[in-house]
Amino acid sequence: MRLLILTQAVDRDDPVLGFFHRWIEEFSKKYEKVNVICLGEGRHQLPVNVAVHSLGKERGVSRIEYVLAFYRYIWTLRNEYDAVFVHMNQEYVLLGSLLWLLWGKRVVLWRNHRMGSLLTRIAGALAHVVCFTSPAAYVAHFPRSRRMPIGIDTERFAPRGEKSARSVLFLGRLDQVKNADVFVQALRILAEQKVQLHASLYGDPTVPDSQYVREIRTAAASLAGLLSVHAGVTNEKAAELFASHEIYVNLTPSGSFDKTIGEAMAAGCTVVAYNDAVRSVLPAALFVERPEAQPVASALKVALNLSAEEKEALSKRQRSFVVDTHSLVLLSAKLAEILR
């Protein structure tokens, strides 16, 4: 079987989408040929049966040139793929599905955002299957939707010896939906209570130098010595960060199952989160009921005060949860079944 994948980026160095490079590697094991059409192309090293075709974002082409290139690729490659996997961007389904259906290609859409629109519903109706990972995703109740593993590379994300004592990590885009400002406010509360810890915040904003980002950086500067702020990192570097930190804080709301939660669990971190997708896995004291500074500070204090035995037991349980239900190997196998 031959597969066409459509995605935003094929770039190992992309701090947000770099993980998809590993997805393509794993998917390629199950197909004779894989063609990937991406909005932008960066550094990659993929198996010989994978070909990457860029719509030209890295060259700064116009939107109409994107569309023309998209149609050129799906037409010229039409005899080189049997099924289509559209990752995240419903626009590709809206643009290409009529041709794909005419040619007898099976179309699977992956969409996991909690917000949607009429166009989302149309794309869902045109696709044979719509995949999601969070029960709060907009598409979760579509007639042909299928809940999937989040696709964690459990070999890359794994415990690696001793973690830095009382270390706290926040990793994600510096956008309001991620609630990094709430994390910084929670650290201020703990600082006032003389709680000993050292925290690291890694991430880049979607909109550089926005008011929101400036406020976070100003607040973080006042916590010098307690909190260090860094730019976003690659997926490979993220694995090292999870392996070296004891605690990971994720305040992304329910609706999307943030992959970094699964990566942190696989790497043996104690996770503090505000996301219903992991409510049943986290101890109640580590689940944040609302994205506010005081509840986050309280959960962090609990995490910091866990005994070595409690941390070890929690680490093993959460890693098993990811390996058994959310690994990349499992995702690849389930997706192959759907695409047949």
Shape: globular
Alpha-beta content class: alpha/beta
CATH homologous superfamily assignment of the largest domain: Glycogen Phosphorylase B
Could you spell the SSE succession in H and E letters? EHEEHEHEHEEEHEHEHEHEHHH
Poorly predicted tracts of residues: none
Our measurement of the CA-to-CA distance between the termini, rounded to an integer number of angstroms, reads: 8 Å
- Most strands sheet: 7 strands, parallel
Radius of gyration: 21 Å
The number of E-state strands comes to 12
CATH topology descriptor of the largest domain = Rossmann fold
Task: Output the strand order for the largest sheet.
Answer: 3-2-1-4-5-6-7
CATH class of the largest domain: Alpha Beta
Helix content: 25-40%
Could you report the average pLDDT, rounded to the nearest whole number? Answer: 96
CATH architecture of the largest domain: 3-Layer(aba) Sandwich
Describe the protein in words.
This protein is of the alpha/beta class. It has 2 domains: 2-152 and 327-339, Glycogen Phosphorylase B (Rossmann fold); 164-325, Rossmann fold, CATH 3.40.50.2000. It is 38% helix and 20% strand. It contains 11 helices and 12 strands. A 7-stranded parallel β-sheet has the order 3-2-1-4-5-6-7, with helices on both faces. Strands 10-9-8-11-12 form a 5-stranded parallel β-sheet, with helices on both faces. Helix 8 links the parallel strand 11 (245-250) and strand 12 (270-273). Helix 3 packs parallel to helix 4 (118-126) and helix 5 crosses helix 9. The protein is globular, with a radius of gyration of 21 Å. The N and C termini lie close together (8 Å). The model has no long low-confidence stretch (mean pLDDT 96).
